[in-house]
Hints:
The chain is mostly helical. The protein has one domain. It contains three helices and two strands, in the order ααββα. Strands 1-2 form a two-stranded antiparallel ribbon. It starts with a helix and ends in a 5-residue tail after the last helix. The model has no long low-confidence stretch (mean pLDDT 89).
Amino acid sequence: MSSDSQEYWKANIRLVMGCLAVWFIVSYGCGILFAPALNSIHILGGYPLGFWFAQQGSIYSFVILVFFYAWRMNQLDRKFGVQED
């Protein structure tokens, strides 16, 4: 495996791990662990923020993560010359 290939996969794995960390914090942290503390904040007509993250916020975060991952991978692909035309 060439040095460029190794750097590409390192960058790819680093990106995946970062996205998984955000996913974990949003879904498990904000939706479960920090929900009691977040419930003291009310948004959108009085809904507790912890409830909102558990029900809607995590879904929005996941969709944003998917688009971020696709955008960032396109950048990495161009940087390492493996883009799809």
